Amino acid sequence: MVKQQLESLIDSNDAKIGVIGLGYVGLPLIVEFGLKGFEGIGFEVDAKKADDINAGRSYIVDVSDENVKKCVDAGKLTATTDFGRLAECDVIIICVPTPLRKTKDPDMSYILAAGDEICKYMRRGQLVILESTTYPGTTDEVLQPMFEEKGFKLDEDFLLAFSPERVDPGNPQFQTHNIPKVVGGVTKDSTDVASLLYGKIVNQVHSVSSARVAEACKLWENTFRAINIGMANEMAKVCNALGIDTWEVVRAAATKPFGFMPFFPGPGIGGHCIPLDPHYLSWKARQHGFDSQFISLAEQINSSMPRYVAGLVRDALNEAEKSVKGSNILILGVAYKKDIDDMRESPALSIIDLLRSRGAEVKYHDPFVSEVTFDHAYTIGDGEPLYNEELTDELLANSDCVVICTEHSEVDYSRVCEKAKLIVDTRNALNEDTRNGSKARVVRL
Ligand code: SAJ
């Protein structure tokens, strides 16, 4: 049976590992296998990425050029756009994007494309693992039939499992080797062999009884965050209405040593996980006649935050007898969270759009983001990109309002408070001393 054959190859580190998609999930994964002595082939549709890898260059913040080069030079890593080489692999791990369509429905096109490529070159004796975040049932309802239609039988000819990616880009404490790995096979043989494989590169493998359990686990993790962030945002609105300092409340609640986990209000949620993953779960639940209200309520509250922040700006300018229209507004920090350059789903884009639609002249400063482009989803303005402005004293002094959307560590907030007239702080970036010593009026979420 294929189980024994693969177990033997994995035990001896001779299993050849194929990874489809060398992004922030796939590249760290294939390099981790390479450093542990497995030969890996990375499959990319982007020839430039493949060329970079083969030249020993990394384009992912958590993967060093040194480690890529070490694997390439040792013959443990090759990147290619030739999917025909999938036939050489004993293990194939799919690490492709799972975005949402504009209708908030799952976009499975990348998984289907990867499945099609695997079908073209599949041979007996392969283990296929899906890591892309997706709705429960994808592995056994979508991928399994694709392979069986080619005449392959599960357990006899191939194994199939799901293992959620838990990569947290830029996290200094947790990387591939020390993040527990959940593994669920469509069959027990699949679970056993996939767990044996990951046990070669991670300290802790948590095997579960099915691929669906593993798929649901990942969505639970990130839906948990989306809902709790939504609650923090609603609490900010309540505290604001009651004239209570939101941040002081949540900091006090966080002193509870059990039964509480602090989440913080913000200008909305960005990134490629939290705004999207819950919709994979609610979409699937709806197929079974269940309406997951928590997910839609969290979405409503979280996506209301940009408009709420624009309202804070409007009211703060009004206090200074100014209108939004004609005001110079500086957005401080546009990335979706601090100290990274990722703009995906960043709420700052919506805030810029809303302020521009009310006639404000909007500029931004973000040390990590050189240019902000507005796709068709952001209709206001002439669609021209915005470019990062140098944070000069003059820029601060000429701004009628500075909106802190992302609290990058390297910004000198004391200088911002010294030179600006009005600050709307959506991240509690200004500590009490800075706020109390501020020449600028400070309004907070
Ligand atoms: N946010 C808040 N308030 C909070 C926490 C986050 O407004 O209390 C906002 C952030 O500013 C951001 C969005 O929500 O715009 C998402 O933030 P996040 O901290 O969840 O960061 P992500 O999107 O990078 O989430 C990733 C996820 N990792 C994986 O899916 C493998 C998530 O599961 C991790 O828990 C998270 O990183 C993390 O903890 O850093």
Ordered list of secondary-structure elements with their pairings:
Layout: H1 2-11, E1 17-20, H2 26-35, E2 40-43, H3 47-54, H4 65-73, E3 77-80, E4 91-94, H5 109-121, E5 126-130, H6 138-148, E6 158-162, E7 181-185, H7 188-198, E8 205-208, H8 211-242, H9 246-253, H10 277-287, H11 293-319, E9 328-332, H12 347-357, E10 361-365, E11 371-372, E12 386-387, H13 393-398, E13 401-404, H14 413-419, E14 422-425, H15 432-436, E15 441-444
Parallel strand pairs: 1-2, 1-4, 2-3, 4-5, 5-6, 7-8, 9-10, 9-13, 13-14, 14-15
Antiparallel strand pairs: 6-7, 11-12
Helix pairs in contact: 1-7, 5-6, 8-10, 8-11, 11-12
The protein binds ligand SAJ.
Describe this structure in words.
With 445 residues, this protein is an alpha/beta fold. 40% of the residues lie in helices and 14% in strands. The chain contains 15 helices and 15 strands. The protein has helices at 2-11, 26-35, 47-54, 65-73, 109-121, 138-148, 188-198, 211-242, 246-253, 277-287, 293-319, 347-357, 393-398, 413-419, 432-436; strands at 17-20, 40-43, 77-80, 91-94, 126-130, 158-162, 181-185, 205-208, 328-332, 361-365, 371-372, 386-387, 401-404, 422-425, 441-444. Helix 8 crosses helix 10 (277-287). It is elongated, with a radius of gyration of 24 Å. It starts with a helix and ends with a strand. The model has no long low-confidence stretch (mean pLDDT 95). The chain binds ligand SAJ.
**What characterizes the major β-sheet?**
8 strands, mixed
Small ligands present: ligand SAJ
Structural class: alpha/beta
Range of helix content: 40-55%
**Strand residue content:** 5-15%
Order of helix and strand elements from N to C terminus: HEHEHHEEHEHEEHEHHHHEHEEEHEHEHE
Count of helical stretches: 15
